[in-house]
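Final report, Chapter 2: Outcomes

The project's central promise was a pipeline that accepts a single protein chain and returns its three-dimensional structure in a standardized token representation, suitable for archiving and comparison. That pipeline is now operational. To close this chapter, we reproduce one record exactly as it appears in the project archive, with the input sequence first and the structure output second.
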Amino acid sequence: MPTTVLIIDDHQLFNDGLSLILKESAFFQVIGQVYDSRQAVYQCQTLNPKLVLVDFNMPHLDGLGVVNALKAQGFKGKIVVISMYADAKEIAIFKQLGIDGYLPKTTPASELIKVLKKIMANERIYESLNLQKKRSIKEVSEYKLTKREIDILRALKKGITTEQVAHELNLSYYTVETHRKNINQKLNLKSKIEFYDFLRNFERED
């Protein structure tokens, strides 16, 4: 039976991308997504997931605030922090609070699934993995992306739909889809998971 998962992250693109990655795995079932951390504890109580994935840096209530609230409520599931920002001091705090794991947001999808499976098997993991290198426009130039393809990647980075991209760039829906297929071919991206892995790191500045 798949492990039920609740994702708590105010960054909609990452939250939705992570949900897609987990939904394509037979081992996990996303039963809820929270974009406002103030709703996190209520949703966790209502849905009772086996695994909670929570961002560290969020407005209103940060990741540690969410964890403390869940612990106070007696939550028994696994808790994993996924964030771009965690140094040795913060990881020590995660361990002290009994958080089951920490993963950088740049963790490749294939590694993410492997590590989460280990955590669900009662292994605690806090170490940084070999991270996927951030790709800037300069770094992807070797793939000969056109200016229009880069414009489309930038638009998709905002977390908007293909229809919205088409409207923003004054293109047809089918033209945008064709460009997306060309991008996948040039970058040798063979699945939606790989595409979202790339998109999350494309020109990332945070």
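Archive annotation: The beta strands are 3-8, 28-34, 51-54, 78-83, 101-104.
This record, like all others produced under the grant, will remain available to the consortium after the project formally closes.
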